[in-house]
Write a structure and sequence with these properties.
Elements lengths: L1 E11 L3 E4 H5 L6 H8 L3 E4 L6 H16 L8 E5 L10 H9 L5 E5 L5 H13 L7 E8 L9 H4 L4 E12 L8 E9 L7 E3 L12 E3 L1 H23 L8 E4 L4 H11 L10 H4 L6 H11 L8 E8 L3 E8 L1
The protein binds oxa(dethia)-CoA (UT7).
């Protein structure tokens, strides 16, 4: 059977670093509060004139290099984003143009912080059917553009960035030793929209809007929902939690990461956490953390990875991948 194997990963952070102390100058907060409640120490902001597609292109180039592929070989681009450069065209089409990739399939997936997990699952449908031979799956966000800089409950939490993976079809035996996406689980519950949303859009206000969140309610849902999705994805893949080498969670809050790991029985030494340095980069957070784990030598070929996320919608999901 054909599997979708991840052959390269890359991450990119914009240059402008924003510390907790920087934010304490504009809202009533403190470095100590932010670290204690979230684990975040810094985040990065894309400078004016740099859009989501620019971050996506940087991450995509690194992932292609790591895979030993060139833009000329890319036939599918999926960008998970909730902060497109323009309402349309899709960021994926802009990335195609900026990379100089040939005419192929390119579109965006909008599932907010869960976008990367959703996009992986969508790409798997193309790659494991043999429709795409060299797919780029990118999570890219400029979340700082959606911040209300007077709301201390949200503006300290988010940052900008991008991460990308290259997926290629690979023949497998249908066993757990196969390289590729072994299983996933996706969920959405639209009745929880009011917990986390942006208060503007093309068909309502005609504006971009600002992010609004009932943080503590989202927090409560996160640990329960994500844990359930992990259990379900592991079951679909046929793996035990004990088999997982690395848990690469969505980087929203260190307390959520730890809560989920405890609940599903993942040892803290197997968790890749970048929340302190990246903050919540929405759909970019998983591939950014993944790229970090690869570049510092922790994540190695052949290992079993578990990724998960939850975000606005509410949406959530998890996937199990053999590298
Ligand atoms: O990507 C997926 C979506 N997002 C998430 O997963 C985020 C989920 N939620 C969270 O991470 C946490 O709920 C927060 C970090 C947002 C907040 O932490 P919390 O422990 O749930 O705090 P809280 O919202 O219950 O607020 C406690 C207090 C409040 O003050 P009062 O009402 O008790 O006087 C807030 O006004 O903390 C206050 N507060 C702050 N204080 C200093 C809220 N934000 C700040 C801040 N600095 N930045």
């Amino acid at each position: 059977m054909l599997r979708s194997a991840v052959t390269g990963v890359g991450g990119y952070l914009p240059t402008e670093e924003v510390t907790n102390d920087d934010l304490a100058k504009i809202v009533d907060t403190s470095d100590a509060w932010i670290i204690e409640r979230t684990g975040i120490r810094r985040r990065y902001r894309a400078p004016e004139g740099v859009g989501t597609s620019d971050l996506a292109v940087e991450a995509a180039r690194k992932a292609l290099d790591a895979a030993g592929r060139t833009a000329a070989e890319v036939d599918l681009i999926i960008v998970a984003t909730t902060t497109p450069d323009l309402t349309f065209p899709a960021v994926a089409a802009m990335v195609q143009r900026k990379l100089g990739a040939p005419v192929g399939i390119a579109f965006d997936v909008q599932a907010v912080c869960s976008g990367f997990v959703y996009a992986l699952a969508v790409a798997d449908g193309f790659v494991a059917r043999g429709t795409a031979k060299c797919a780029l799956v990118i999570g890219a966000e400029t979340m700082t553009r959606l911040m209300d800089w007077t709301d201390r409950g949200t503006c300290v939490l988010f940052g900008d960035g991008a991460g990308a993976v290259v997926l290629e079809p690979m023949e497998g035996q249908g066993t757990l030793d196969d390289r590729g996406i072994l299983g996933f689980s996706l969920r959405a519950d639209g009745t929880k929209q009011d917990l986390l949303y942006v208060d503007g859009g093309p068909s309502t206000t005609g504006t971009v809007g600002k992010l609004r969140m009932h943080g503590n309610q989202v927090f409560r849902h996160a640990v329960v929902n994500i844990s359930e999705a992990i259990t379900s994805a592991a079951k679909t893949a046929g793996v035990e939690i004990a088999d997982i080498d690395w848990f690469v969670p969505h980087q929203a809050n260190q307390r959520i990461l730890e809560g989920v790991a405890r609940r599903v029985g993942i040892d803290e030494n197997r968790v890749i956490s970048t929340v302190s340095d990246h903050a919540n980069t929405s759909a970019a957070s998983i591939p950014l953390a993944w790229a970090q784990g690869v570049s510092d030598g922790r994540i190695k070929p052949g290992q079993l990875l578990l990724v998960e996320a939850m975000g606005g919608g509410l949406t959530w999901g998890a996937a199990v991948i053999r590298l």
